[in-house]
Write a structure and sequence with these properties.
9-stranded mixed β-sheet; 12 helices; alpha+beta; binds 5'-O-(N-(L-cysteinyl)-sulfamoyl)adenosine; 5-stranded mixed β-sheet; 441 residues
């Protein structure tokens, strides 16, 4: 891709309306464009990042045996009346009427719809567990949408649902998601900690929020610092191993605001380990037993007996993660962003020095680009005739993790190559391909 042909509308200065660095950067480098309050269009740079995050989320769901489906954004109010949430959900729910005057709504979450899908087909306990997920737009008419895509009205979410025969099996499902979330966020180079949380309008009495630390986060958190050292690497997808893992985390005090109790915090956590800060909620898991299955009559036959299934739901804020990664990786003082290569909008940028009368470096850049493209490396070439330092400044903001600089330091087949923010080195093209591809694994 040539920069001059790309749709990357860069702003000269930070937009004044943005209060936090992720929102500033996303507007500044043209990842998103606001269309109305709390509703955004995703432009190529932002869309590419979000799609890559989505794919990682998907792979980690598939890995634990969750099956992907796709439910619609528009739902009928009937099923919400069955569960009793139609009234409870209040003004955050966007209610719509169709031409027949039927009450519809834009789904803020999908417990009812997925329960309806489950109950119409699954009749025997032998088909359990059923684990289903989808990745779909949601709408919540937030009172105060803010911080760009962090708290907006229309957002992209992965939501999964589990159906089990009894509490023991249902907790096994819950714990699978618990481990899966740790792995997902690790692949995004985020350190997310599971914290005991409130269940709000979803319901139930067991719930964890996955929170990454950030001064600009909206969640207040209270934790024992040692929780960051809990290692989940060797956990197996087995009941025992998963419950050992959860216990290891739950040994340490870690709660969000609603669950906070000052006396407990002081008593349970030695002052040298106490951490009281803010964070961004990137995922949230819930166990709520038969809260939906009972009123909606979702049951299976268990050896001649009717049993309501036990359910949980598991969300990841896919669009919010774009902002969360920026909060974690963007050095706004020096205006340098660095995307993890797994989600970078392009993997490598080629920056040739070009003047009005000499485009020989652009010719070289094209050759290098073709060779890298052949090895499946996603490239952008800055073919503008801006001066070199302006190009560097621009690409420091855009945050492509690898750069090839073609100018006076290019000698023969040795190219100037660097990882963003680091010293450059002179390397042959094959060495560059090897480095980039090794980081992609
Ligand atoms: N049904 C459950 C689990 S699937 C549910 O809806 N959970 S949730 O309300 O906690 O949302 C899941 C995730 O979506 C949150 O952890 C958060 O990362 C993201 N999210 C929630 N509200 C917003 C919002 N207004 N803007 C952006 N992301 C949001």
């Amino acid at each position: 891709m040539y920069f001059t042909k790309s749709f990357i509308p860069i702003l000269k200065n930070n937009p004044t309306e943005a209060k936090i660095k992720s929102h500033q950067l996303m507007l500044r480098i043209g990842m998103i464009k606001q269309s109305s309050a709390g509703i955004y269009s995703w432009l190529p740079l932002g869309f590419k990042v979000m799609k890559k995050i989505e794919q990682i989320v998907r792979e980690e769901q598939n890995r634990i045996g969750v099956q992907e489906i796709l439910m619609p954004t528009i739902q009928s109010s009937d099923i919400w009346k069955e569960s009793g949430r139609y009234e409870d959900y209040g003004e955050e729910m966007l209610r719509i009427k169709d031409r027949q005057n039927r009450e519809m709504l834009y789904g803020p979450t999908n417990e009812e719809l997925v329960t309806e899908i489950f109950r119409s087909s699954i009749k025997s306990y032998k088909s359990l567990p059923q684990l289903l997920y989808h990745i779909q737009w949601k709408f919540r008419d937030e009172l105060r949408p803010r911080f760009g895509i962090m708290r907006c009205r229309e957002f992209y979410m992965k939501d999964a649902y589990s159906f089990d025969l009894n509490d023991e099996e249902a907790l096994f499902s819950y714990n699978k998601f618990f481990l899966s979330y740790l792995k997902t966020f690790k692949r995004l180079e985020l350190s997310a900690i599971p914290m005991a949380a409130d269940t709000g309008p979803i319901g139930g009495n067991l719930s964890h929020e996955f929170v990454i630390l950030a001064e600009t986060g909206e969640s207040k958190i209270y934790t024992d610092k040692r929780i960051f050292e809990v290692n989940s690497d060797n956990t197996k997808l087995e009941k025992k191993s998963l419950s050992v893992l959860r216990n290891k985390f739950e040994e340490f005090y870690a709660v969000t605001d609603e669950k906070y109790n000052e006396k407990d915090f002081m008593e349970k956590v030695n002052d040298k380990y106490r951490l009281n800060t803010k964070g961004i909620e990137v995922g949230h898991i819930f166990y709520f037993g038969d809260k939906y299955s009972k009123p909606m009559n979702a049951s299976v036959d268990f050896k001649g007996q009717k049993q309501f299934v036990k359910m949980g739901s598991y969300g990841i804020g896919v669009s919010r993660l774009v902002g969360a990664i920026i909060e974690a990786k963007y050095d706004d003082k020096n205006e340098i962003m660095k995307w993890p290569i797994s989600v970078a909008p392009y993997e490598c940028v080629i920056i040739p020095a070009i003047t009005k009368n000499d485009d020989s470096n652009l010719v070289k850049a094209n050759k290098v680009s073709n060779l890298l493209n052949d090895k499946n490396i996603d490239i952008i070439i800055d073919d503008t005739d801006e001066n070199f330092s302006a190009k560097m400044k621009k690409f420091n903001l855009i945050g492509i993790p690898f750069q090839i600089l073609i100018g006076k330091n290019t000698e023969g087949d040795l190219l100037e190559f660097r990882e963003i923010g680091k010293e450059s080195q002179k390397l042959k093209i094959n060495q560059i391909i090897e480095i980039i591809n090794s980081k992609k694994k």
